[in-house]
Each structure stands twice: as structure tokens, then as C-alpha cells.
Amino acid sequence: MIILQILVLFISISFFFYGLGCFYSPKMFEEFKRFGLTPAQRKLTGFFQVLGAVGLAAGFYFEPILGFVAATGLSVLMSLGFGVRIKIKDNFILSFPSLFFALLNLFVAFRFYSLFELF
Transmembrane segments in this chain: where (predicted)? Predict the structure, then answer.
């Protein structure tokens, strides 16, 4: 349970601030241009990252289904991000964080799934 708590804290903080950066950071504005994505896609990505961060925390402290949905959603989001990195031909070093977070969120989703009360 402590591993899940540490991972949820790490992922939630990471996605919360990265998501906010999608709204306010000029560096993020340039990155999304480089990715070939629109400002609306940048804002939507930021919204889902902040929502996912909050959902992970809520899932840990209140209801595991929230954490499962949030972690699954963030895993999908990061898989798409990895796909964008591959499409624009970023190198492995630049692409790895999105793959890492996709797999990490998938692991957390399975951990949340194991907490469901079946009856």
C-alpha cells in the first residue's frame, strides 16, 4: 500500500504541475507547436492532466474506482503522447518520459483495480 501511496503522490504532483504548464508556460506553448498540436489540444491535454492528478489523489483517499479511471486515462494520454513523439521523430531520450508515465500509470491502475471490493 505504501508503494501505491508514493506513486500516487509522485504522479499526481507531476501531472498537476505539467497540466498547469499547458495553460501558462510559454515553453509548453512552443512544445505543442513543435508537436503539431493546436492551442485547443494543448488546453485539453492540460485539463485532462490536472483532472487525472486530482482523480488519482481522490482514488487513493476516497474511492479506488476514481483512481483506477484516472490512472487508466493518464496511461492512455501518455501513450498518445508517446505516439506523437514517435510521429515527429523525437529521439529516445525525449520520448522516454511519456512511455515511462504510460507504463507507470498502467501499473497504478492495476494496483487500484486490486483494491475494488467485489461484494
Answer: 6-24, 44-62, 68-86, 93-113
